[in-house]
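Aim 2, interim progress. The first record below pairs a target sequence with its structure tokens.
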Amino acid sequence: MLEKQTRKLTCGFVGKIDKKYPVLLTTDRAPGGTHLTYVTEASIGTEEKEVKGWKAGGKLTINASPDNKGIALEGGGEYNQSTETTKKWTNMAQQRRDFAVPEGMAGGTFQAHANAGWYTGYLVQKIDNTDGKSEKTVAIPARVLIQAPTDDVPLTWVGRQV
């Protein structure tokens, strides 16, 4: 159950597995006796920006004669001020993997398999209208990659001879 302000939304995925542990990446063929190092990186970050300011102005008119037909004094002014604050942070994670293609092998590739599965189904969401009298359910066709709950890492590297 998700809550957004005063409106409650329910959302879920219903489907079946299409492909377990799909191949996400395959390297070029490497000859025997080759040492390979693969690096996977992920970064996440956020940036917040806040702008504050104010503006003031005015006008003053003084007439110093009968029936406002004499000398008039008029003045005006304006002052602006604003402040902008930006906060930014980034977090980077990196993993290195070393592999060796054995001597005498004509060529080998390495594949990265996801510790996940492709699922085909529907995103289902129940929407309660704000009047409280009506609701509807929508189903959106979707194919999603869902990481296996028993795996802490998203990838498995598998050496393979071609």
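The second target in this work package is listed in the same format:
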Amino acid sequence: MEIRPQAVVIPKETDHLEQGKYGPIFPRTPANYGFTIIARVKPGHADAVRGYGHELAKALERDPYLLGPLKLHYLRWVLFDDDTRFMYQGIFDTDFDKYTEDAIALFAKAGVSTVFEHLEGFPEDWRTNPDAFIAFVRAHQCPSFIEYGEYPYVTADEIKKALRVRSALSEVLDQMQ
């Protein structure tokens, strides 16, 4: 089986895209699904954003599977422009609608807040008003125009399975020596 890297150009116009509950469903790309959100940080909240990053890392130490329902490949958070703007970038295996609904449910179940609370314009009633949460995300989403995958269209679960198979095969081979 040959794995061929691929790239897909994402159109600027979204009128022709399938519409989900919350707007256009961007196509699955070789990197799977994802989005980038860029928003202004509330004045004086940059340290709280960084602190939330530390809290999330500690929560993941306690429960490495905390974010499992989101089917993430990775997240990247960046503070820039002298800590006045924040970028949230995630790549995951579900479409936008499912990811955001799962994120809201996960926050509610875990009883945790979201880093977005430190961003200007984020709705205070986001826990009980998922439409406002999603409207904020859509308003601050900066769609990519090209996405590349070295191992295209592979899910996080498939990658983990392949790594388990590799480990098991390695163990068998070690025992044969």
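The longest strand covers residues 72-80. This observation will shape the mutagenesis plan for the next reporting period.
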